[in-house]
Specification:
424 residues; mainly beta; four-stranded antiparallel sheet; 1 helix; 48% strand; globular
């Protein structure tokens, strides 16, 4: 008998046979690994899309900014801004907002998603800031109608960058557009009294001003927009009624088309590569095909159009309108089928006493990034009309923050929304 380390070899063989039998018996069974389940992370309570509304509070009291959660139709934060705010720009993918305050030569900046302290940037006296814009993360640009300059502000330190006195542009700068590739910055200078306007091209890298743009006679430009490929910039001239396409490479006008004298607002639809232009003098909305320099036009009759917002899904465009009769203003929104160019419906907003001066931001309108909502800043009504695009009905009129003014009965009146901008 063989022994290995004191163990009988016969016993070893017997044990091995038993093991093999056990393995064979279990061959027809299926064994699954045991896993400890890991519960999924709960949804983030933070909202995914927001809209920022800027409100004025008279010439002697600070205005306000309200951030609205698109999914909840609720105000998630409010911040105090400066005197007579006029516009707002969202930078850094919508995480920071800059508000030019024309009444006290300041710019207010803060995070739109929370009620954090507001940083106030003081500009040179007499600046009268009117517009802010940027496609950069590190710099935002502010047009100043009082000093005829454009200032560059560092978005990290919120300090004015060189040149500290500002980049000299034309008379009464009112709009800015930087191309998505960050290589070109254009400024529309409205001039005064319906004349003396110009367009300034600025190099964002060294802040130098390029030579005057050739092949165009400017009268009173009021809007400038950049195409999504950065190859074209478009300027709307209210005085001439022309929309001009500028080749950013040569800095020259390549074509101009008429949308009628008096046209005063222009919006760009990147989904359909289209420009929408409102003309309250002609009661028209014109959309231009920006895919070619021909800028072929379709004209749509809309009474007293003010502002336009296009849904990012490309299905519709919404036009705010205001009809003034006596001391009252009746507001509405016209819905345009973006595919056919036909009017599909009209949504009444409200009829109230007119309290806001006539301007392109009187019924500022913006569409949410998910195309589910459209927001109308009803300056005269003191509220924001929220339209549900699923059925094109108004679901809510959100009151603006309370102002320093009171009604005859002693009730505080709401502020006046003057600008609406949608975040990403």
């Amino acid at each position: 008998m063989d022994f290995v380390a004191g163990v009988s070899m016969t016993g070893v063989r017997t044990a091995a046979v038993l093991v093999l039998m056990a393995v064979c018996i279990s061959c027809g069974e299926t064994y699954r690994p045991v896993a400890t389940p890991i519960p999924p992370l709960p949804p983030s309570p933070a909202f995914s899309h927001l809209v920022v509304v800027i409100s004025g509070n008279g010439s002697a009291h600070p205005g306000a900014s309200t951030s609205i959660d698109v999914s909840g139709d609720t105000a998630v934060s409010q911040s105090a801004v400066g005197l007579m705010p006029v516009q707002a720009a969202l930078v850094r993918n919508g995480t920071i907002v800059y508000v030019p305050n024309s009444g006290d030569d300041t710019v207010s900046t803060f995070s739109p998603g929370s009620a954090v302290p507001v940083t106030t940037i003081s500009l040179p006296t007499g600046s009268t800031p009117t517009f802010a814009a940027s496609t950069e993360a590190a710099t935002v640009y502010v047009a100043n109608s009082g000093s005829n300059t454009v200032l560059a502000i560092d978005t990290v330190s919120n300090v004015i960058e060189a040149p500290l006195s500002g980049i000299p542009v034309g008379i009464n700068p009112v709009a800015l557009a930087e191309t998505p590739n960050q290589q070109y910055l254009y400024c529309a200078n409205q001039g005064t009294g319906g004349s003396g306007g110009s367009v300034t091209s600025i190099d964002p890298v060294d802040r130098t001003v390029s030579p005057a743009i050739a092949n165009a006679t400017w009268i009173s430009p009021v809007s400038v927009l950049a195409r999504s490929d950065s190859n074209r910039v478009y300027v709307l001239d209210q005085g001439s009624g022309l929309v001009s396409a500028i080749d950013t490479g040569s800095n020259a006008v390549v074509n101009s088309v008429s949308v009628g004298v008096g046209a005063n607002f222009m919006a760009y639809d990147p989904t359909r590569n289209r420009l929408y232009v409102t003309n309250p003098s002609k009661n028209t909305v014109t959309y231009l095909d920006a895919s070619s320099d021909a800028l072929s036009a379709v004209v749509i009759p809309v009474a007293n159009p003010v502002s336009v917002a296009a849904l990012i899904d490309g299905s519709r465009a919404y036009v705010s309108s205001a009809t003034v009769s006596g001391g009252n203003v009746t507001s509405s929104v016209t819905v345009i089928n973006a595919l056919s160019g036909s009017v599909s419906s009209t949504i009444p907003i409200t009829t109230v006493s007119k309290v806001c001066a006539s301007n392109p931001s009187e019924l500022s309108i913006a569409a949410s990034a998910d195309s589910t909502r459209v927001y109308v800043g009803n300056c005269d009504g003191g509220n924001v009309a929220i339209i549900q695009t699923l059925n094109d009905t108004m679901v809510l009129q959100m009151p603006a923050p309370l102002s320093a003014a009171f009604s005859s009965s002693g009730t505080p009146l709401p502020q006046n929304p003057v600008f609406v901008v949608a975040g990403p």
